[in-house]
Design goal:
The protein has helices spanning 37-43, 49-56, 93-106, 127-141, 169-194, 202-209, 224-230, 233-239, 293-307, 353-368, 382-387, 399-412, 423-427, 445-454, 489-500; strands at 5-11, 19-25, 66-70, 79-86, 113-117, 160-166, 218-222, 247-254, 263-273, 313-323, 335-337, 343-345, 372-377, 391-396, 415-418, 436-437, 462-466. It is built from 15 helices and 17 strands. It has an eight-stranded mixed sheet, with helices on both faces. Strands 1-6-5-2-4-3 form a six-stranded mixed sheet. Strands 11-12-16 form a three-stranded mixed sheet, covered by helices on one side. The protein is elongated. It is an alpha/beta fold. The structure holds ligand BES, manganese (II) ion (MN) and zinc ion. Mn(2+) 2 binds at residues 268, 273, 291, 352.
Length: 502
C-alpha cells in the first residue's frame, strides 16, 4: 500500500499557512454557508473575498459543495478550500468519515503541507469526529500501485502531510490511536484483494496472515497433510487441480476474559477461481483474483481488533485454495465426504466456495464453540443480480445477529440486506446420490448456496454475507478509489464494538 498521507493533530493556529481547508455549515434552505468564529478570524485578512467568491459560486455549504480559491488575496496560502459539511447539528460519524474522504479527493498530491480546521459553527466537534475525518483521509488516499514502474507515489514530489487543527489535540490523538488500526486493517484487506494470483498463492496468503503475529494475534497455518488428517475433503477437492498447496489459517485475538467463548469470522479464500472443469468464460475472468475477498476481510479485521486492543476473544478462520482445471482436478459427478461426515455430490466445480466454507465453518464450530459465526464470501453472481453492488446479501439463522449486522451496516455505510432461508429452499440441494449436491438449480442461486452453508453450522448463531457484489470491483466512493474496497472490515469491527465487547 502507498501510505501517501501523514496525519497529525494540533491546536487551532494563529494564522493560515500552506494549503488550507475550512469547513462550512449549510444554513436553512436557500441560506448562506457559515463558518465558525475561529475560521472567520483566520480568513479576516482576506476581507470580503470569501463572501464574494461564495456568492459568485452560489456556495451553500451543503455536503459535497466546495469553494476552491487559488492564491487568495490577503492570505499567505497557495490555496484555500472551503468544504461544505451540511447541517452541522446532524453530522454522524459516517458523515465525518466521508467528509475526510472528499477533502482528500480535493487535495492535489503536490499540495505538500496541508492544514484542515476541524470546526463548525454552533456545534462542539468531538475528538471522535476529528478521528473519523483522519480515517476518511487515509482510506481515500489509498492506492495500489505496486506494479506501476513509471510512477511510484512514494517518491512523488509532494507526499502529503496533513495537520488537523482541533480544540483538544491530545484528545483527538487518543481517538485517532483507536481508529488508525481500522485504516490499516482496511488497507491490508484491499492489498490482498488487489494482488494478482501469481503472487498471492494460498501459501503466500498464509505467510502474509502470519504478519498478524506482530500485533499480537496468534496465527496457526495448516497445510494439506493437516487438512487430510482433519478430513476436510470438501475443501481439498477444490484445490486438488492446482499446483499450489491448499491452506487453512486460524487467527486468534484474545482480548476478552479467558473463559469467554470467542466470536468467529470465517472467510472464503479462493485465490483464483477459474471455475475448474466447469470452466468460466474468458471475459472478465481476471476479476476472479478477488475471489478471496472474504478471507482478506477476516485478516484485515483481526488486525483492526488487535490494534485497538478490542476487549473480545475473536477467532478468524480462512480457507485458502486455488480452483484450477487439470488432469487431477475434481469432476462433476464426483462425491466427496466433508469433515462433518456429510457427503456432497459435485454438480458444478464452479460452485467451489461453499465446499471450502462447509469444512471451515464445521471446523470453527467444533473447535471453538463460538458465540456466533459470521462468514464472508464472494459466493454467487446471483447476489449481484439481486442486490447490485450497494448491499451485501445477509443470510442468518438468528434474528438478533441479523439485526445487529443491519445496524452496523447503517452506521458504517457497509450495508447488508437480509435474504430468506427456509426448508423449501433447502430441499433444492438434496442429491440423488449423496447427502447433498453443490448447486440448487437456476433460481434463487444465492439462497441455495446459503442453504448449503447452513448444513454445516448446527445450532450456532450464524450469519453469511455474500459479498460478490461489494468485495471486489467495488463502486468508487468518497472513501475508496481502489478496485478492492476492503469491504466488511469496518462493518464487523463495528458489530464487535457495539454488541460483543466486554
Ligand atoms: N466466485 C464465484 C462467484 C462470483 C461471481 C463472485 C462473480 C464475484 C463475481 C463463485 O465461485 C461462482 O462461480 N459461483 C457460481 C455458482 C454456480 C455455478 C452455482 C455462480 O455464481 O455462477
Ligand atoms: Mn466459482
Ligand atoms: Zn468462487
Amino acid at each position: 500500500m502507498a501510505d501517501s498521507v501523514k496525519i497529525s493533530f494540533a491546536k487551532f493556529p494563529a494564522n493560515l499557512e500552506g494549503t488550507s481547508v475550512l469547513l462550512a455549515a449549510s444554513g436553512a434552505a436557500g441560506g448562506r454557508a457559515s463558518l465558525s468564529a475561529a475560521a472567520e478570524a483566520l480568513v479576516a485578512p482576506a476581507g470580503d473575498l470569501l463572501e464574494r467568491a461564495g456568492a459568485a459560486d452560489r456556495f451553500d455549504g451543503k455536503s459535497g459543495a466546495v469553494l476552491d480559491l487559488l492564491a487568495p488575496a490577503g492570505l499567505a496560502v497557495p490555496r484555500l478550500l472551503v468544504v461544505g459539511a451540511g447541517k452541522a447539528a446532524d453530522l454522524q460519524p459516517l458523515d465525518w468519515l466521508k467528509l475526510g474522504g472528499s477533502i482528500m479527493g480535493r487535495l492535489p498530491e503536490s499540495a505538500g503541507e496541508v492544514g484542515i480546521l476541524i470546526d463548525l459553527p454552533g456545534v462542539d466537534v468531538t475528538p471522535q469526529a476529528a478521528a473519523e475525518v483522519a480515517l476518511g483521509l487515509r482510506l481515500r488516499a489509498y492506492s495500489f500501485d505496486l506494479y506501476k514502474t513509471k510512477k511510484k507515489s512514494e517518491d512523488a514530489a509532494g507526499k502529503l502531510r496533513v495537520t488537523l487543527y482541533v480544540k483538544d489535540d491530545a484528545a483527538a490523538k487518543r481517538a485517532w490511536k483507536k481508529r488508525e488500526g481500522i485504516g490499516e486493517g482496511v488497507a491490508i484487506a484491499r492489498d490482498l484483494v488487489n494482488e494478482p494470483a501469481n503472487v498471492l498463492t494460498p501459501t503466500e496468503f498464509a505467510r502474509r496472515a502470519g504478519d498478524l503475529a506482530k500485533v499480537g494475534v496468534d496465527v496457526e497455518v495448516m497445510g494439506e497433510k493437516d487438512l487430510k488428517k482433519l478430513g476436510m475433503r470438501a475443501l481439498l477437492g477444490v484445490g486438488q487441480g492446482s499446483d499450489e498447496e491448499s491452506q487453512v489459517v486460524v487467527m486468534r485475538w484474545n482480548g476478552g476474559k479467558s473463559d469467554s467463548a470467542p466470536v468467529a469470522f470465517i472467510g472464503k479464500g479462493v485465490v483464483f477461481d477459474t471455475g475448474g472443469i466447469s470452466i468460466k468464460p474468458a471475459a472478465g475472468m481476471e476479476d476472479m483474483k478477488g475471489d478471496m475477498a472474504g478471507a482478506a476481510c477476516v485478516v484485515g479485521l483481526m488486525h483492526a481488533l488487535a490494534r485497538r486492543k478490542a476487549k473480545v476473544n475473536a477467532v478468524g478462520v480462512i480457507g485458502l485454495v486455488e480452483n484450477m482445471p487439470d488432469g487431477k482436478a475434481q469432476r462433476p459427478g464426483d462425491i466427496v465426504t466433508s469433515m462433518s461426515g456429510q457427503t456432497i455430490e459435485i454438480i458444478n466445480t464452479d460452485a467451489e466456495g461453499r465446499l471450502v466454507l462447509g469444512d471451515v465453518l464445521w471446523y470453527a464450530k467444533e473447535r471453538f464453540k463460538p458465540r456466533f459465526m459470521v462468514d464472508l464470501a464472494t459466493l454467487t453472481g446471483a447476489i449481484m443480480v439481486a442486490l447490485g453492488t450497494e448491499n451485501a446479501g445477509l443470510f442468518s439463522n438468528d434474528d438478533a445477529l441479523a439485526a445487529s449486522l443491519h445496524e452496523a451496516g447503517q452506521e458504517t455505510g457497509e450495508k447488508v440486506w437480509r435474504m430468506p432461508l427456509s426448508p423449501e429452499y433447502d430441499k433444492l440441494i438434496d442429491s440423488k446420490f449423496a447427502d447433498m449436491k453443490n448447486t440448487g438449480g437456476r433460481f434463487g442461486g444465492s439462497i441455495t448456496a446459503a442453504q448449503f452453508l447452513q448444513r454445516f453450522v448446527g445450532t450456532v448463531p450464524w450469519a453469511h454475507l455474500d459479498i460478490a457484489g461489494t468485495g471486489m470491483s467495488s463502486p468508487q466512493s468518497e472513501i475508496n478509489r481502489s478496485w478492492a474496497a476492503g469491504w466488511g472490515v469496518r462493518l464487523l469491527d463495528q458489530l464487535v464494538a457495539r454488541q460483543y465487547e466486554e
